[in-house]
Amino acid sequence: MDLKAQFEQALADSKTLTEKPSNEILLQLYSLYKQGSVGDVNTEPPSNPFDFVGKAKYQAWESLKGKTSEDAMSEYISLINKLKG
After folding, report:
1. Quick check: 78 and 13 in contact, CB under 8 A?
2. CATH architecture classification, 3-84
3. What are the residue ranges spanned by the domains of the chain?
4. How far lies 76's CA from each of 40, 45, 56, in Å?
5. For 30-53, b where at least 16 C-beta lie within 10 A, e where not — what string?
6. CA–CA separation, 58 and 45 (whole Å)
7. Residue 63 carries which DSSP code?
8. Most exposed residue of 26, 54, 66, 75, measured as fewest CB within 10 angstroms of its CB?
């Protein structure tokens, strides 16, 4: 199975985890998913000062700037496999 297929399988597996991951892990998954599927952050940060979730997501994704899509996909797959047990 190629990397993209493994990534898509990990995405499907993420929806069937028996336990909800911590917010920190959820942010990590979000940022790895975005970096793997879109690449470097390509939007402006949220302008609403009370949008804490949006800002956290933006900062998590922005922190991966420069990481290749392939590396992000591999890390996402590894993290999902770890969460699956």
Report:
1. no
2. Up-down Bundle (1.20)
3. 3-84
4. 15, 23, 18
5. ebbbbbbeeeebeeeebeeeeeee
6. 6
7. T
8. 66
SS3 category, 74? helix
Within 8 A by CB and 6+ apart from 28, the residues are 60, 79
- Residue 17's Cβ-side half-sphere holds a number of Cα atoms within 13 Å equal to 18
- Using alpha carbons only, how large is the chain's radius of gyration in Å? 13
Give the global pTM: 0.93
pLDDT digits (tens, 9 = 90+) for 29-67: 999 999 999 999 999 999 999 999 999 999 999 999 999
Per the structure block, which two tokens stand in for 18? 């028996």
Question: How many angstroms separate the most distant Cα atoms in the chain?
Answer: 43
Q: How far apart are CA 50 and CA 68, in angstroms?
A: 31
